[in-house]
Amino acid sequence: MKKLSYLMILLFFFTAHAQPGDPRYQPKPYVEIKHPEWTKNATIYEVNIRQYTPEGTFKAFEKHLPRLKKMGVDIIWLMPIHPIGELHRKGTLGSYYSVKDFKGINPDFGSLADFKSLVNKIHSMGMYVIIDWVGNHSAWDNPLANQHPDWYTKTREGKFQPTPWYDWDDVIDFDYNNADFREYMTGALKYWVSQTNIDGYRCDVAGFIPVDFWENARAELDQIKPVFMLAEWESRDLYKKSFDMTYSWTLWDKLKRATVEKKGAPALFEYMAHDVNSFPFNSYRMTFTDNHDKNSWEGNQFSNFGPGLEAAMVLCSTVNGMPLVYSGQEAGLDRSLAFFEKDPIVWKDHKFASMYEKLFTLKHNNQALWNGKWGGEMERVTNDNMNKILSFYREKNGDAVLTIINFSDQEAAVMLDSKYLKSSYTELFSGSPFIISLDKTSLKLKGWDYRVFVRNK
Fold first, then answer.
1. What residues have CB less than 8 Å from 174, skipping those under 6 apart?
2. What pLDDT is stored for residue 19 in this prediction?
3. Distance set, CA 450 to CA 268, 343, 455 (Å)
4. Which end of the chain has fewer CB within 10 Å, C or N?
């Protein structure tokens, strides 16, 4: 009996110690959704159909697809394609974001058949397409307002209202406390994926809509096909079960401080630290120097970043995240496009197109710059001129990129701490070789100059 008890004690001891650690203390991945495989090294391009061509149609835009493919664009994001409300319309043509029919096509852009043709053409060229989804509000004359007035929030007097606190007088605010409304909007999201084969959505003011709505919608959409979801928001909670990517407004703000406000490289250090330490591993952040909001309300890419624009473009294309190009940026768009009127982009050859082509080709081919878990973490490379020079390194599966940018208008000499960077490199834009063989490496950059060193294999 004693022998049996002894064996039982031994069995209990070894069994207990063979168990894994307490699950309460085990690290868990925050991002639970599965990013579509094709997003791992993708870039994104925002299309303003109204202003893209004199015709302002899907068919006219199709002619630009070969150029965008050559530039290295992977995801085509179309600003809202739906009919625009007329009641309380702003300007002559109104805002894309005042939607009159969530299952309709804006007739100014073409027909449903034209849209399906565009989607098919994009897919045939190895690119993907998402459309803008405006789930927070509708036009005043959207039929839902008459058919289901209970789907909207109301004033104390029981009247429709724009989204509180904003000057969005051309729209009225939805109420996501209504289960029937949630079912309708989820069905409308599923409609475009199932009926036109789009690949996902950019979701307007996504943070104004309850997270549990998005989580369920994502699950239902993924049952149709793997989708890509971009939130016009910047917070961690949306990454868990709903969105692949959010905006990086913070980077835009910090870049403006570093360039136009002449705060230099230190203006960016906080962003870099927070990106590495506070955003979930395997989350995507959309990095940009321009988009329709910044172009329409802030100014234009040149006024926003001045002579530091190219430096900002290079940073946005090599930091952790997916770089965005807005309609006309690659043609050197130097003005703000009208938002409620016709205002066609003037297309011309510009060096920015070739810059983006080089940067996007590198992103496609070099795993250090891939998105989320597929890419390399940003490592700070210290130097002796930190007030002017930002330097960082990314490495993944044998690929490596070293980015060095002078965020000042003055020539700057810099000594890098290069003990762990020793190798041979090729500079992306000049094609010049660069050897790092010492613990300290010196170089000199002109004002607002940049170097992107790609490690040779």
1. 135, 136, 137, 138, 151, 152, 153, 181, 185
2. 57
3. 15, 34, 16
4. N
Q: Which two tokens stand for residue 154?
A: 């109301």
Residue 101 vs residues 143, 221, 293, 418, 440: alpha-carbon distances, Å? 8, 20, 23, 58, 62
CB 151 within 8 A of CB 174: yes
| CA 142 vs CA 64, 138, 177, 246, 333: distances in Å | 32, 6, 19, 28, 34
Supply the pLDDT for residue 101.
98
Grouping H, G, I as helix, E, B as strand and the rest as coil, residue 358 is helix
Q: Are 425 and 435 in contact (CB under 8 A)?
A: yes
Give the 3-state secondary structure of residue 104. coil
Cα(425)–Cα(436) distance, integer angstroms = 8
**Nearest of 34, 392, 384 to residue 228 by alpha carbon:** 34
What is the β-pairing status of strands 245-247 and 228-231? parallel
3-state secondary structure of 360: helix
Contact by Cβ (8 Å): 383, 66: no
The single residue listed with the structure tokens 């590198």 is 362
The pair of structure tokens assigned to 406 is 């002078």
Which residues of 22-163 form beta strands (DSSP E)? 44-47, 75-78, 128-133, 137-139
Write down the pLDDT at residue 18.
47
Per the CB < 8 A criterion, the answer to whether 230 and 130 are in contact is yes
Contact 208, 136 (CB under 8 A): yes
Adjacent-strand bridge partners of 413: 444
Token output for 378: 């940003």
Query: What is the total residue count of the chain?
Result: 457
Q: How far apart are CA 306 and CA 300, in angstroms?
A: 10
Residue 193: C-alpha distances to residues 30, 45, 219, 227, 318 (Å) = 27, 19, 13, 9, 31
- Joined together, the tokens standing for residue 252 give 């835009």
Measured distance CA(352)–CA(355) in Å, rounded: 5
Are 291 and 326 spatial neighbours (Cβ–Cβ below 8 Å)?
A: yes
Instruction: Read off the tokens for 243.
Output: 């969105």
Extract the residue ranges of the chain whose pLDDT is less than 70: 1-20
